[in-house]
Design goal:
Length: 435
């Protein structure tokens, strides 16, 4: 269920003055040590916490463009609301604690609500056991029933039945799904789940359970809407669960227009994450340099000027900035292992080369490259600006924008009601904007 990343080559950092890569681009996790790395977003933190307060549960939406820091934000908030250090809130003498789903849950195409419910329950059991010890599930009949439900589903999967919750990544070949699993009826699942959640609330004093559903933006809009509509009266209406839907810009307005019954369950306004300021990004880097330092005189592996340049070309897309910083470090280390800091000129050249190589690998036509260049120079544009790109009607413009979006060459930047803006991605700007 989790995203796949190339590993962090920790051994490469040995002797570098840093314990690990300060430009690690993986999302922050729900943990005390990662929480200390989280920077900024004060207003959004407040908003999120207010909107997920209380025991009733509901839906909260966190939206923002690719790589802006959505998963990290939600995980930092889950940590705060879990509150393992039992901090009291400013306004009351009580310390509130919410059970977080520690692993992120992702929706996949064609998932059945009942399968999805089982995934959710399994994730919650995992968290509870991680926090309270593995034996905890045996300490109560309702907790035991929850665990047994998952175990029996998995067993029926092994016995030659298939379960779609394993998804394509789980090694189940969808084409071979001739036999349907001995499906457990939805009401039974819901009943067991409700009792499990009730027990967690009553017995351990949690206010509610927090369940983030990640990456709604990678699925087609229709898939998301269909799923949410079908889950509206079952999954999404459970007591004591806060569902945190994480998606692209405009997720909330899409639900308002196309899944009204779901949007009615949403508490307040969406929490919208804009790109971080340059100051905040530099603070993220400096916080990590400090924390990971193993030697007092260790110098930053990459000069600040390079980070500023990446910030400019990517409109502050922090994941891209960290990804490229990591890329050039590993490339440089492979060539000059004895050198610990990369001079700014070399860093810059290496980023340009990398961007050129990525673009060349796509084999765009001459015309496509021209349009892309124009898009890069425009900073941001809409479909109805088609004439600027040499088109005489919107359709061909729409087609090329779709293709470029799919290839990661463009980003959706903002979305007011029915107006989508696009802008070129970092690598494209590195190639086409004169520096
Ligand atoms: N507020 C923050 N403080 C510190 N680090 C952050 C912050 N926001 C993001 N990061 C870092 O930026 C990188 C990207 O963040 P993250 O993966 O959370 O973005 P995302 O929006 O979920 O991306 P995607 O669209 O791919 O799901 C990670 O390395 C993360 O640690
Ligand atoms: Mg994410």
């Amino acid at each position: 269920m989790s995203e796949v990343y190339s590993h962090d080559y920790e051994e490469l950092w040995e002797g570098s003055g840093f314990a690990r890569n300060p430009y690690d681009y993986r999302p922050l996790r729900v943990s005390a040590s990662d929480r200390e790395l989280f920077v900024g977003r004060k207003k959004e933190q407040e908003l999120f916490k207010i909107q997920t307060a209380g025991s009733v549960g509901g839906i909260v939406i966190v939206e923002g463009s690719i790589g802006v820091g959505k998963t990290s934000f939600v995980n930092a908030m889950l940590y705060d609301k879990w509150n393992p250090e039992n901090k009291k809130t400013k306004s009351s003498m009580k310390s509130y604690t919410y059970l977080p789903s520690i692993e992120t849950i992702e929706l996949s195409e064609n998932i059945e609500p009942s399968d999805f419910m089982l995934t959710v329950l399994s994730n919650c059991i995992f968290s509870l056991e991680k926090i309270h010890g593995e034996k905890i599930s045996d300490s109560d009949k309702n907790l035991k029933a929850g665990k047994e439900l998952i175990a029996s589903t998995v067993r029926s999967g092994i016995d030659g039945f298939s379960i779609s919750i394993l998804g394509s990544g789980g090694g189940v070949n969808k084409n071979k799904m001739a036999v349907q699993p001995a499906t457990i009826p939805l009401p039974t699942i819901m009943n067991i789940m409700d009792k499990w959640f009730d027990t967690v609330i009553k017995k351990f004093g949690y206010e509610a359970v927090l369940v983030p559903i990640n990456n709604l933006d990678v699925l087609s809009e229709q898939t998301v809407i269909n799923f949410l509509n079908s889950a509206r009266d079952t999954l999404l209406s459970r007591q004591h669960v806060w569902w945190i839907l994480i998606g692209g810009p405009g997720l909330f307005s899409t639900l308002e227009t196309k899944a009204r019954r779901v949007s009615e369950l949403v508490t307040g306004q969406p929490v919208t994450l804009e790109p971080m300021s340059l100051e905040d990004v530099l603070e993220v880097v400096n916080t990590r340099l400090e924390k990971f330092k193993t030697n007092e005189d260790a110098k930053p592996p990459i000069p600040q000027g390079t980070i500023e340049m990446l910030y400019q070309v990517s409109n502050g897309e922090i994941r891209y900035i960290f990804k490229r910083l990591s890329d050039i470090i590993y490339e440089f280390r492979a060539t000059f292992p004895s050198e610990r800091t990369i001079p700014e000129q070399i860093a810059k050249k290496s980023l340009h080369n990398l961007a050129e190589r990525k673009l060349d690998a796509l084999n765009l036509t001459v015309r496509e490259r021209e349009v892309l260049k124009q898009m890069s120079l425009e900073k941001s544009f809409r479909i109805r600006d088609y004439s600027k790109f040499g088109y005489n009607k919107p359709q061909p413009m729409q087609n090329i924008v779709s293709k470029f979006l799919r290839l990661g060459l463009l980003r959706r930047v903002e979305r007011s009601i029915r107006e989508v803006y696009y802008s070129a991605a970092g690598d494209v700007n590195l190639v086409f904007r004169a520096s």
